[in-house]
Design goal:
Order of helices and strands: EEEHEHEHEHEHEHEHHEHEHHEHHEHH
Helix content: 25-40%
CATH architecture of one domain: 3-Layer(aba) Sandwich
Strand order of the largest sheet: 4-5-13-10-11-12
CATH topology of one domain: Rossmann fold
Shape: globular
Number of strands: 13
Length: 421
């Protein structure tokens, strides 16, 4: 294992790899896993850097904080398709648009990347119980991974989490605790419970290993583009952990010499859950690009989220600072759109690219359309839109914009009339 330790996202204080807590002991900030990049670079075959006989995220073991992949879930995690979406791109003048369809992971969510790495790490550390808080996707993902190895799993959810996601949790055998309150209430309760009982806390934006799993999406995208990094990556954001993970993966690849440039990021958010976007704006207003940002002084905005995109509906972004850093460091942008645009993006993705996405995933396309209209993204640039979850996760939202079937009697004449034939 090439992991060397941890670095605080907020104060840059470093800890050794023997450090056993999940947050910075100096300031309480989130931690980022560090690696011996020179050693990794020296041992990589840059023509064939990762084994071709393994088709999951664990092929990238030199850049993962793990020792024993035999403890990993026996499911196919990652290796999701990257589709060239010509018809969809043409609608907004983009010639090289790609869709990374992570709704095809085992639990139909991007979150399987994080859950598989955190579960493997928990098993390496001998943890008896794994717990997490979730609006649905992270929890059902953790339940799926845990079920595949027979590990016990407890998930705290807000009581208004979508029924389809609760069904996944229960069918995978997780113990589900529905909290009367928001995701943030469930997050705080999970944190306190794990502290008291010594359980392994999988929580996004707290556990540094979640970012390590999520960064593998960047590895796959660049490999699928023959190690030519795109110009832009568009990522829907709630707590900010996927965005920070995507950026971490890109930086890893750049440091070991597998890509020559770093893409710019678009943080995609709903106007009704825009804490990260607001914080990015505050940072740019305060610094005007004239001096390095003092991240110890940056306060992430808290909001009262009400977006229909439940997977990115977050009041307090638990990995918000790392996400803001990712946007600023990449010279990227944060874009927000109304919920109506997010819902409208669902059938557009389905009908023009054949990909059915839940609202949180469709938010990335809705924001990219806005970026294209405003000439933030140029027509000839290569853009990858990350789609984080399958549309079957939230049928209620899809039905709002799908229309109704035509009801007829079972006769050819009625069918002809209905179809205008």
């Amino acid at each position: 294992m090439h992991m060397t330790g941890f670095r605080c996202v907020q104060c840059d204080t470093e800890q050794s790899k023997k450090f056993t807590d999940f947050v910075c002991p100096d300031c309480g900030g989130n931690l980022d896993v560090t690696y011996d990049y020179e050693s990794i670079r020296a041992h990589l075959d840059h023509e064939y850097p990762f084994p071709s006989d393994r088709q999951d995220i664990f092929k990238y073991l030199p850049l993962l904080p793990l020792n024993d992949v035999s403890l990993a879930p026996p499911l196919r995690i990652g290796a999701t398709p990257l589709y060239k979406a010509d018809r969809l791109g043409a609608a907004v003048g983009l010639k090289k648009l790609y869709l990374k369809d992570d709704g095809l992971n085992p639990s139909a969510s991007f979150k399987d990347r994080a859950s598989s790495v955190t579960l493997t790490k928990a098993r390496e550390l001998g943890a008896k119980f794994v717990a997490g808080a979730s609006t649905g996707n992270a929890g059902s993902s953790m339940a799926c991974m845990s079920a595949s190895v027979g590990a016990p799993c407890v998930i705290f959810v807000p009581e208004k989490a979508p029924t389809a996601k609760i069904a996944q949790l229960l069918i995978f055998g997780a113990k589900v605790v529905a909290v009367r309150g928001t995701y943030d209430d469930a997050f705080d309760l999970c944190y306190k419970f794990c502290r008291k009982h010594g359980w392994f806390n999988r929580n996004t934006g707290f556990n540094p290993y979640t970012r390590e799993g999520k960064k593998t999406c960047s590895f796959e995208v660049c490999e699928q583009l023959d190690w030519e990094a795109p110009d832009w990556m568009v990522v829907s954001s709630g707590d900010g952990n996927i965005l920070s993970g995507i950026w971490k993966g890109l930086k890893d690849l750049h440091r070991v010499g597998l890509i020559k440039k770093l893409p710019r990021l678009i943080c995609a958010q709903s106007e009704q859950s825009s804490a990260i976007a607001q914080t990015v704006a505050n940072v740019r207003k305060a610094y005007h690009g004239a001096a390095p940002v003092d991240w110890k002084k940056v306060e992430v905005v808290n909001v009262q989220a009400t977006t229909v995109a439940d997977s990115i509906s977050v009041d307090i972004p638990r990995d918000g600072l790392a996400a803001v850093r990712a946007v600023i460091e990449s010279n990227g942008v944060a874009i927000t759109v109304p919920d109506a645009d997010i819902l409208a993006a669902i059938p557009e993705l389905a009908r023009q690219a054949g990909v059915f996405s839940e609202p949180a995933a469709a938010c990335s396309w809705a924001c990219l359309k806005k970026a294209a209209r405003e000439s933030v993204v140029n027509p000839d640039e290569t853009v990858v839109c990350v789609l984080t979850g399958n549309g079957l996760k939230d049928i209620a939202s899809a039905l709002k914009v799908s229309g109704e079937p035509v009801k007829i009697d079972p006769t050819v004449e009625d069918a002809e009339k209905a179809l205008n034939i």
